Each structure stands twice: as structure tokens, then as C-alpha cells.
Amino acid sequence: MSPLTAEAVFVAPRTLPEVYTALEALGPAATLLSGGMSLMPMLNRGIGPRDAIVSLGRVDGLAEVTLRGGRLSIGATATHTAIARHPLVARSAGVLATAAGGIGDLQVRNRGTIGGAVAHGNAGADYLTVLSALEATVVIGGSAGERRAALGDFVLGLRSTDLRHGEVVTAVEVDGSAPDAAAFLRYHRVQGAAPTITAAAVIRDDRTVLAIGGATPTPTVVRVSSVEQALAAVDAACAANPLGDAHNPPDYRRAMAAVHTRRVLEEAAA
Amino acid sequence: MYIGERVEGRNNRLVVAGAGTYVDDVRPEGCLVLAILRSPHPHARIRRIDVTAAEGRDDVELVLTGESLLAAGIAIPPSGSYANFTPRMTVKHPLAVGKVRYVGEPVAAVVAHDLVGARAALDALMVDYEVLPSVGNALLALEPGAPRVEDEWPDNVMVEYPFEKGDPAAVLGATEPSRIRRGTLVCNRIASTPLEGRGLVADYDPHRRYLTCWASTQSPHILRTLLAGALDLPDSSIRVIQPNVGGAFGGKIPMFPEDIVTAHAAIVLKRPVKWIEQRHEYLPAGGHSRDVRCDYEVAFAADGRITALTTELIADIGAQSTFLGWLMAIVSAGCIPGSYKVDDVRVRLRCVVSNRGPWQAYRGYGKEVSAFFLERILDEVADAVGRPRDEVRERNFLTPDVFPYEQPSGWITDSGDYSGTLAKVKDLIGWEGFAARKAAARAGGRRLGIGIGHELTPEGSSRPDSLLSGTDSATVKMSPHGDVTVLTGVTSPGTGNETGIAQIVADCLGASLDRVRVVQGDTELCPHGNGNYSSRSLTFGGSSAHLAALVVHDKIRRVGASMLDVAPGEVRLDGHRVIAPSGAEVGFGAVAATIYRSPHARHMEGVEPGLEVTRTFKMDNVHHQPEKDGRYNQYPTWSFSTAACIVEVDEETGVVRIEKFALVHDSGMVVNPLLAEAQLHGAITQGIGASLYEEIRYDDAGLPQNLTLREYTLPGMRESVDIVLGHQSTPSPFTMMGMKGVGESGISAPAPAIASAIEDALSDLGVRLTEVPFTPARVWAAIQEAR
Amino acid sequence: MIDIELTLNGRPRRLAVDPRESLVDALRERARLTGAHVGCRTASCGACTVELDGNTVKSCCVLAAEADGRAVRTVENGAEPGELDDVQVAFAEAQGMQCGYCTPGMVVSVRNLLDRIADPDDDEITRGLAGNLCRCTGYVNILKAVRLVRDRRLGRV
Ligand SMILES: Cc1cc2nc3c(=O)[nH]c(=O)nc-3n(C[C@H](O)[C@H](O)[C@H](O)COP(=O)(O)OP(=O)(O)OC[C@H]3O[C@@H](n4cnc5c(N)ncnc54)[C@H](O)[C@@H]3O)c2cc1C
Ligand code: FES
Ligand code: FES
């Protein structure tokens, strides 16, 4: 494939270093494309630069799922479908597979990737919630080398992350040993709408981590000591950083955060 | 007999192959792409549009603005007169002149070589706006001193339409307060959202001075006439062709600003130009419906009989545009009190302009609004007198003996048996015995509820002094081989009426169905007709085809009988043959051959030659002769349905799940049950969508909140419901074969039925639902309020 | 413009595309396969559904350039004009469409569903088609059509 005009470019490198080089060469006009399920709808509406696309779609090995040194590593371009079906994910982090299998619809899952979802940082996104409860680490690559960040530090706000230009999410890592118990719930108004609330609870060695997405700009994460304490903490977070839209105003999301806090904790404990 | 048979749709095998030709599949050689720049502001003055950068691009052929269209003499003056109200009108501009009035209003157009280039050219257009204070809804627009949407008007009220019957004020005054209820009901805004957007391809031949347009339209003839007016061309210089249409539901009639701009561009450039609407353009700017608020007062007797009803309707019709949707509000008003006998009624409607998007026709056409209001009021009355909801409806229904019945609006309801559909739907849903189910479910922690909703669906809209009048035409012709072609003025935007028309003609002629072809949607081929709207395609199109077929039938009969040497009265026509009592027969092919080849021979004596007949059908019971207090009858046939449903409500989240939905419709005689049922499935699902999932929202400034289908959420397969249908047939005394329209039936009843069922599920809490759609957040809020 | 090579409905095909162009536009405008339709361009409606390397995708939100070297299957599927497969026949017979705008995408999704699951129940059918919107049918006859082709393949009818 060879670009014939200088006006618009599409590059699909085979290696990450080539991706970094391309991003640097193209500068701020470059748009990084993974599954396109969040990006393409915007580009198609004329939102965002679209003349220089760097695709991750052909980077060798970037979709791999591995279990190494007690960590489950999921490559950035692993699709939601692949994650939902992967035996290693099912074994080590079943809730992640559950979450992946419920995102959007089949066609969206066949294209959308975990790296794209994490980089997009949308409130209520299934992955952000479940990965928060799994206390995931984001692996970030760039020409200056690799760095790691806890998911909670990586996602800064509504659709805003700590990603700098030229950097790429290369993988997401979680504990490779299966939790003692876990549950994931998604509540969405109707097929095709973004989830209103996503909720995940992960219990490991009597430690329960709860994450509630959709009621605050970034997931609310609580180390749970009791249901009442969790409810109070979630409610306080919703009050401090409310989120809402026309169909699901903040007071409603706040109430639903409470309902799903209870439901997901019950389900995980069951 | 083909009428009454479940004949598969004639286009099925074409469209399922992906071989249908929709407007975006029309691609004349060298076709350019037109894209529209739209206003990002609800209300702003246009100071300047800088087109130089866009025009400077290599692949840009043309840039148009409101000023350039004005310079070309293109503007749309107000037209149409209205018998009993006088709307304020304005001159319309296909591209905004001076100021913009809603987000999405067309401001400029670019023509480039392809979509990618056109988008880049849009980015290069610079518009300098002076943002003006805006009014994001009708209530704000009605406030004293509110910013005015139309500078020349004294306020934001476009039309006021009051009417009264009896003396409701006196009755209300004489009723004890416990027998009066007052309240406010709201139908929020929705959008018809056919899966295919709007679009038009225009190709101008400068040598012949002839414009050919392929349009995703419901009404090719009307579009042609309106385009001719807007572009100052003779009607005969324009041909409008309707290719396959990917759904319309009222949303593609009669003409849009973009149609004019695209046709004008093709004329200027002398090259084919295509405009295809994108979904993010459609949602704010393709036209909405509903958005009506009703303040009511109702008085009733101890048995639930309504003694007086007053309704103040405020319709937020958005910004006025070239669209005609605002007339829906008139229909909402005109259908009160609809199926119910109330002798003392007052209705006052105000259509208010705001900086929301304009209205556009949508299935239901206002009748769903009145149905929602009326049914909610009936439920409230039932509750107030402590009588069952079905019984209170029975108590108030118009009875079959009163028809034809003059509504307070002056419109005349042809026939009906409302108790009949109510009784049948109660059987289908399991009305009796539900209380026990509900109690058992409640004991198990589940909240089930049952509800009913009734709708009245006047059809065949025939507006006075309008191209959308009450006639339509058809040509039936038989070829020398005996093959039949029907050309109709009605069209099928995916509704399947071509199949029904073929069935009617085949039966009338005694022809084989597979030898009847129906051709629609081409102004050069088909006789003048109004196209598809208001479920008129079979009542008008089928009837006109029937009239024309009768003439052809008569010729075939006479010539065939002569060929069989018997009297014309003795033969019958069946299976594409003329059959004598003896069993002797002659095929239509031989008869047609005789008519064409031997016009001077014996069998043609006294028979007019030729086998092509055009007839125009006019509804008998429409009258636009305002002898009656300036009133007129716009609707010839009045279909109706009663729906019932069972829902489960999650009281913690407000989520409503429909467990079972049943609807009994009465659309008179049904030509093709397979297709009629398919229409009902679609209408009911749209009705459910608008009850639970769909809502066009604006903020107070008029900024739209739904720009994609992820916010304007249509029901998907996961939301689909197992629909149980029942039929009743009360033939219309006024139409051929007693047909009534079916296309809109089923869209109105779901909202009140679902509301009623939700309230029933929460009956111990005393929840009242006054606003549709019943989104989880609204249901939840209503529960909190009741607690 | 860039050149891409793909296997289109089983045959090798070379197309020159704009780097910004969606696969659906390349299929419709350049390969002249107009069965895939555009209803939203935001991956919501599924009218543009095609198979990419055996998986269904919404081709409005896949760049044409990304299909380079891959296999694309559309509703046309290389069939002769007038030739229908069993999925299509079932849709026609069950009146699983009205305007037909969603139908090609539905057909692609149903083919893919039945390739993955030979005997899907209603719930699996619903999940398999959740990404395909239809505004006309209320899905009632679509469900009937899928049951019909399933049962025919399994010799139940
Ligand atoms: C109809 C529909 C329904 C959906 N429903 C849901 C749902 O229910 N729940 C849910 O969570 N999501 C949903 N989504 C979103 C979906 O999960 C997306 O796949 C996801 O948000 C983005 O992943 P992607 O690979 O498609 O990323 P892209 O769209 O390719 O990219 C998204 C953004 O991230 C950047 N980016 C992508 N990859 C990387 C990377 N590796 N490193 C750095 N930056 C990167 C891009 O530049 C872009 O800004 C839905 C989407 C659609 C269209
Ligand atoms: S056009 Fe691709 S999903 Fe709607
Ligand atoms: S048949 Fe019209 S959208 Fe499905």
C-alpha cells in the first residue's frame, strides 16, 4: 500500500517502534486508530482530525493475551469478542470476560479493543469499571520507553487520560490468579445506548473492591468493609462529582449507583 | 380471490438480495456530491459567510448561500388557505437568510467530487454569527418579552385554534369539586427516523431544459409541483422518480429545503448532483413530532361518565421552516374527544414557535397525542370514581348507532365499534384473572401491571386547498398479450401497497396475480396522484385502480363473450380467462389480441378500442364546503384499535419490561393480512419505542441533546415484544369494499396502555405518569414523588 | 489515494481508495456493491454490516484501508443476480422486511449467526441481531424468518 497523495495518509505499521515513529513524524495531526468504535463515529461526523491515521490494526502480537509471572496481560488490540472468549481471561478474570461479552453489540465487539476503550476513558465504560475493581495496571509505550500506571491514576476525568501525544496503550494487566468471587453488572436503558451504570465487585482474600461507573466522571472505587460503608462512600462520591445527561440526570444516576452497589455486592457474595 | 390472502410483498426478493435501488444507489455518470453546512446555534444572526477558502479548493464545484439563492430568485412564499384558523406565515428560504432559528438549519451548501471532499469543503467555510438570545421551548417562548423567533411577529404564537361544543364552563361550575380533576400531560418530542435518511439526486439536461430528480420521497407528483414553483420551471420540465425508499413514516413529504438546493445546484452546474442526508443532520434537522402539552379540566359523574372536558394545548412546533409538520397539532386538537361522547367540550390549541427544530409529519400525525391525553384522563377518572378502567371506557365510548358522528371539531367519524375491540383485546391479554397473577407475582417480589389504551386513527387526510387532497388516480392497461400493468399515483415507501393494489386489480379483472405488474413513483409514467401518507394508499390508490380495472373488465367481458358467442352478462372472468356457462373459455391473451389486432372486426362492434384506462377516485364523505360553521371534514375513514399490555416494573430502577402486548385493530376490510399485520407490528413497535426509549431533548437554550442513534435510541431486537394481534372489521360505508387505512394503526395505543400498566404495577404507591416517554428516570422519579 | 487488495466475496479485488474513506463507501462507490446501506455512520444501525475475515463488522466505521489484505463478504456474496440463498428466501417468505433498507445487513448477520450457532434459540437470535436496527418490522417477522431458515437447515420443517 502506498500513499499517492500528500493530502491524507493512512499508515498501519507492523511494530510498535514504527507506530511511535509515525506518531512523531505526523505530529499533533496524527490520529491513532484501534477498533474505531469510538473514533470512527466522531470522524464520520466531522469531529477531530482525520487526515493522518495511524492504525494499530497490523501491529504484530499486540492482541496477545498472556499469563506470565502471575499477571494476566491483555494486548491493547485484543477485541471485546476475543476477550469474552479467551480461556485465559475466563480462568483468571471471569468478570472481565463477562463485561467484554456485554459491550454494545456483536459487530462492535468484533472491532472494539480494550486498549481503545481504556484510552477513550468514557464514564461508565464496562472495562473501566471492571478493570478498576480488578485493580488493573495500564502499560503505556512510547518512543521514550515503557511506563506503567494504575488505572485509577491513568483515567483523569471524563474522556480524559494521562496519555501524552506519541504514547500508546500497549496492554492492560491484572492479577493472574482468579479472585475468590466477583460480579459484574451493567445497566443500560436500551440496546445501543451507553451504559447508565456499570458495577463490579472483586473479592480476594476477604478484601472486596467495588467499582461503580457511570455516576461519576471516572469510576468510583471503594475498598468495601460493609455494604453500608460502600453505599455511603459511593453516594458521597456521586454528590461530590455528579454526572448526568438528558436521559439519565445526576440524581437518577446517583440513586442507581446505590441500587447497583447493593446488587453487585450481593451477587459477588452469593 | 386474492383479496384477503397473505400474499408476499412484491419487492421482497429484490430488496433481500441487496439489489434494491435506493436514492444513494442512483449514480448518474459524473455525479457530484452536495453537503450542507448547518447552524450550530439555536438562534443567531449571520453577519458574514466567507466562502473563499472553500471555493478555492480544487475539488469544489460550487458554494451556495442563502444570499446566492435569493439572488437567483429562489424563495418559497406561504401557500395554502385554512378553513377555520389563520396561521402566521413567513417567506421560507432553503438556506438561511439573515438569521438562523434552530440548530441544524441549512446555512450553506458545497458541491464537491465526493463525500470526503465535500466534508473538507464544509470545514473550510467560515461563518461569522452573532449569537442571539434563544427560546429552547414553548413555555419559554410564551413568556412576556421572550426573544422572538420570527422578527416580524409580535410574539411566538403561530396559530391559535379554539373550538367549543356545549357549555363546558357551566357544567364544570355546576359540578362538585370531588368530581373534577385538573392536571397537565406532556407528550415529548420524537423523530420518525426511517433507517434511510432523506436524499435527492438531480440531473439537468440543458439542451432539453429538463430536470430529472430521484428522491427518497413519498409523493413524487407533489414534489414535482413544489420544485417547479420554487425553481420557476414548468411542471412539465421536471420528472421526479421515486426509487426504493428506505422507510418514510411521514418523514419524506412533501419537499425539503435541501431538495431545492440540490436541484438548483444541478441546474447551475449542468451536472448531476446528489445530496444524501447524514444521520447527525437528520436528528436535529430532519423534522420532529409531538412536543405537546395539555392542561386539562375534566368533570365526571359517579359512574365515570365524563360530563365536561376542557383542554389547553400548547404545541412546541419549533422553528418554522419549509416543513409542514405543524399541522399535526391541528389534528391533535381535532381528535378530542375522539372515541368518547362528551357533550360539553372546549379545546384551545396554540402552536408556538421556538428555537427547537421544526416539526415534520410522522405516523400518528397528531392522533397519538390526543389518544395519550384522552386515555390518561380516562384512567384518572376511573381511579377517581373507583371503577375499573375498561368499564369507564365502555361508559364513555361512542356507540355504533351514532355514526356518522360529528366531532366537536366538525370532522365526521364514519363508523366504529369501540366496545368490540376492547372486549376482544381483554380476551387476548387475559384481563379477567390477571389480578390473581399480579398478587402472586407481588408475593414473589415482582411487580406486574396490566393496562389498556384505545386509539382512534382517522385516515385518508384530505386537506382543503392543498395538493394533499382527497383524490388519487390509477391507470390500468392490458397489453396485446393480455398482461396487465397498473400505474398508480400512490407510492410505497416500503409499505407494500403495490402488492395490495395488484390483488385488488387481479380480483376485479379476474386476472392472474402474477400477470399484474404495478408501477409507482414516476411522474412521467404514472397518473397524477398524491403519493403515500395518512394510510391512503389502498383506500385511494386501490379504489382508483379498482375503478379503472372495472372499465377494462367490461371490455374484456364484452369482447370475450362475443368471441364465445354468448351474451356479455353470461360470462365470468376468472384465472385470466373469460368463461361461458357451458365451460367454453377464451384466455385474456386472445381477447386482448382481438382488441388490439382486430378493432374493426365483429367482436369489437360497439366497443371503444384500446385497453388503457385512467380513473380518479374521490372520497365521497370528505367535504370542504364550510356551510357548517366554517367546518369541514378532512378524514373519510376512521380506523381504531384497542391495545392491552402486561408490564413488569423494577421499582428500584424504574425499568419497565413489556411482558405481553396485544392489540385488536379495526381497519375495515383488509386486503392483505400478511402486510397489514406487518404494518401493525411496525407501528406498535414504533409506539413502544416512543413510550419507553425515544426522546428528542433540548436544553433551555435550544441545543439538541441527541446527535446520534446512541442518544436517540430506537428499539432494537432486544426491546422487541411478542405482539399478539386481533382483528375486527367494521367496514366503512363510504369506501370501496369498506376499506379503511391501516398504516398508522397501532402507533397511538401503546403509550397510554403502557402508562396504564405501569401505574397498575405500582397501584399501591399511587404513582401517576403524566409525561411520555416513560424512561426509567421518569418512572423512578414518579415513584419517589408518590412515596 | 491508496491501493488496497482484498478478497471480495471470494474473489481478489484491487481498489483505489481515499485514506479517509470508510469501507462501506469503497464497497458502494468503488466496487459498486450497493447492498450494504448507510443508516447512521456511527456504528449504531447495522445497515452497513459486512463480514471482515469472517466476523461481522459495521463497515461505516471501518476504514477501507484497513481491509487491505483481508476478506470481505457482503450481502451479494458473489451470487448471480436473481439468485437467493436460504436465509434470503426465508426473509422473503416470512415477510421479514418492509422497506428492505436494513435487510442486507440483517442477512449478513443471520448468515454469520447460523455459521457460529447451528441451532440458536430466540435469545441467541436476539443477541446475534442486537446490532441491526429495523424501523419497519418491529422484528416480529425477522425472528420468524430466522427460525424458519434454522428449522429448514435442521430438517425440522
Ligand atoms: C454502538 C456502540 C455501542 C457501544 N456500547 C458500549 C458499551 O456498552 N460499553 C462500552 O464500554 N463501550 C461501548 N462502546 C464503545 C466501544 O467499547 C469502543 O470499542 C471503545 O470505547 C473504544 O475502543 P476502540 O478500539 O474501538 O477504540 P478507537 O475508537 O479506535 O479509539 C478510541 C480513542 O482511543 C484512542 N486509542 C485507541 N487505541 C489506543 C491505544 N492503544 N493507545 C492510545 N490511544 C488509543 C484513539 O485515538 C481514540 O481517541 C460502544 C460503541 C458503539 C459504536
Ligand atoms: S451505517 Fe454503519 S452502523 Fe449504521
Ligand atoms: S425493513 Fe425497513 S428498516 Fe428494516
UniProtKB/TrEMBL annotation, chain A:
Example GO molecular function: oxidoreductase activity
Name the UniProt record assigns to this protein: FAD binding domain-containing protein
Entry keyword set: FAD, Flavoprotein, Oxidoreductase
Biological source species: Herbiconiux oxytropis
Alphabetized InterPro entries for the sequence: CO_DH_flav_C, CO_DH_flav_C_dom_sf, Diverse_Substr_Oxidored, FAD-bd_PCMH, FAD-bd_PCMH-like_sf, FAD-bd_PCMH_sub1, FAD-bd_PCMH_sub2, Mopterin_DH_FAD-bd
Pfam families associated with the record: FAD_binding_5
Domain FAD-binding PCMH-type: 1-179
Statement: the UniProt record of this protein carries the keyword Transcription regulation: no
Automatic annotation (TrEMBL), chain B:
Pfam families: Ald_Xan_dh_C, MoCoBD_1, MoCoBD_2
Keyword Oxidoreductase: yes
Domain Aldehyde oxidase/xanthine dehydrogenase a/b hammerhead as annotated: residue spans: 17-133
Keyword terms, alphabetized: Molybdenum, Oxidoreductase
Gene Ontology MF terms in the entry: iron ion binding; oxidoreductase activity
InterPro entries: Ald_Oxase/Xan_DH_a/b, Ald_Oxase/Xan_DH_a/b_sf, Ald_Oxase/xanthine_DH-like, AldOxase/xan_DH_MoCoBD1, AldOxase/xan_DH_MoCoBD2, AldOxase/xan_DH_Mopterin-bd_sf
Gene3D superfamilies in UniProt: Aldehyde oxidase/xanthine dehydrogenase, a/b hammerhead, Aldehyde oxidase/xanthine dehydrogenase, molybdopterin binding domain
Keyword Oxidoreductase: yes
Classification via SUPFAM superfamilies: CO dehydrogenase molybdoprotein N-domain-like (SSF54665), Molybdenum cofactor-binding domain (SSF56003)
Name the UniProt record assigns to this protein: Xanthine dehydrogenase family protein molybdopterin-binding subunit
Species whose genome carries this gene: Herbiconiux oxytropis
TrEMBL record, chain C:
Matching InterPro entries: 2Fe-2S-bd, 2Fe-2S-bd_dom_sf, 2Fe-2S_ferredoxin-like_sf, 2Fe-2S_ferredoxin-type, 2Fe2S_fd_BS, Beta-grasp_dom_sf, Diverse_Oxidoreductases
CDD domains named in the record: fer2
Pathway: Alkaloid degradation; nicotine degradation
UniProt superkingdom: Bacteria
Record's keyword annotation contains Iron-sulfur: yes
GO molecular function: 2 iron, 2 sulfur cluster binding; metal ion binding; oxidoreductase activity
Keyword annotations from UniProtKB, A to Z: 2Fe-2S, Iron, Iron-sulfur, Metal-binding, Oxidoreductase
Positions of the 2Fe-2S ferredoxin-type domain: 2-78
Name of the protein this chain belongs to: (2Fe-2S)-binding protein
Organism listed in the record: Herbiconiux oxytropis
